[in-house]
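FAQ: What does the model actually see?

It sees only this:
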Amino acid sequence: MLILITLSFLFLGALALLLLRIFNPDFRYPWLIAVSSIFLAWASVLFWQIKIPLELTLPAWQPVILFPDSPHFIVDQLSWVYAFSLTTVGLGTILTAIVRKNFPSAPAWVGILALNGIGILAVLAENPLALVLTWTAIDLAELFTLLASVKEENLRERAVISFSMRVLGSGFLIWAGLVSTAAGTPLNFISASKESGIYMLIAAGLRLGVFPMHLPFKTESALRRGYGTMLRLTSAASSLILLARIPYESLQSPFIPYVFAIISLTALYSSWMWFRASDTLDARPYWLLGMASLALISSLRANPVGSVAWGTALILGGGLLFLSSLQNKWLNRLLQLSLIAMSTLPFTLTATAWQSQETLWWGYWFILLSAQALLLAGYYRHAQRVKKTDFKSHSPLSRFVYPLGIGIIFFALLILGIWGWPGAIKIGAWYLGLIATFITLILIWLRPRIRSLDPLEAHWLKPNTAEKTTTGRVYSLFWSLYYFLRRLSRFITNILESDGGILWTLLFIILFASLIAEGIR
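And it is asked to produce this:
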């Protein structure tokens, strides 16, 4: 019941804003409706803690032979953290919208409320059918947003590639369900079978954005910071929750060490790109990819709680930074203090991130701790480069509400270190946290003193379809294959539609019939 109450606040609020937009476009208080809806949803998620676990089962789908398990959703301690993080960022997004250039923007708020509801369903999904349904809704929202906001042909092609890779990830999750069912145990995420784990890992890896690594929003800054940020973080959270459900027994393949090495290098590369980026929003995908890589590492080391810690830090830390658009001394200090929550020091949100019973070669620690330090040092750098806007030029209401939106996300970062889930009040691997913090401080100190660490304009991070980067070559390979198949299809079509098309059709029928006859014999 509590799950339905939360979803009702979000979806009914979105519906009310949509109807007002259609039938009463001059309505003066859409922002108050949006704030009320998201605040009530956020408060109701807090009340989930009273009755965890909670369950919600939808009616069975027909035919039963194809859908033996109806969509099922469950609130446990791990999924609650993601749900709380998403509603917190949603609340912060709508509160900080009061200072955006496009304020008021009811359509964006409709999207934010709807995304919050779909994102909550995604992180609560307990079986593949429920998760694939929510993934599909998020993927379509992202695809339509990108196609509507970009005009360049190459960027539109990259949007389609991104959508295709996500659909492929959904396909691997469906395959995991089929493999588990074939083994005699229908797949559910609370007690997933070991046969399905490797396919769940592949599904999550594909959807977390390995390809494409950089797909920016080409719209105005207000949309990029508001709806754009909510869309990216919701998409990431819906995939990160799957990492916490993978049974470690299924990750004993001889290929796992190679996967571990690739993910470690991906974390290092993306963190380096994030550290050197000159524009925060353009570099946002590298933050997502770097933190998601660390979450994948924790999952591979049999530490689902650590995976959730990194994922929650990705959502809350990213939301705090990407929604910040005004310069203020105290708010900048909040951004800098938020690094403590991501430092893996004791009693912080990420205190359990490096814990594991598995031993790890020291060379990997050099890569992983360096990646973490680069992410944190880059975060500090971006926090100092918030757009310098006169905070006092805004109305008194804006000067009160905007800091409230930033502060509530900062509050969530701190409170999750001591309350509400299995990763709270933990000492963790404190010595690794100290090493990462020390490296971070060194990088912060070196940045203004070494030019290569502080480029004036990192033009190679910006979208440039003319440059042939490594990622661009990968895209070119995919599209070359696509264009080849398209030309082949047109060639065959032209043959069949020509004057000799009937003869070719009869020839194919004769060959097909002869093959069948041979098989019957």
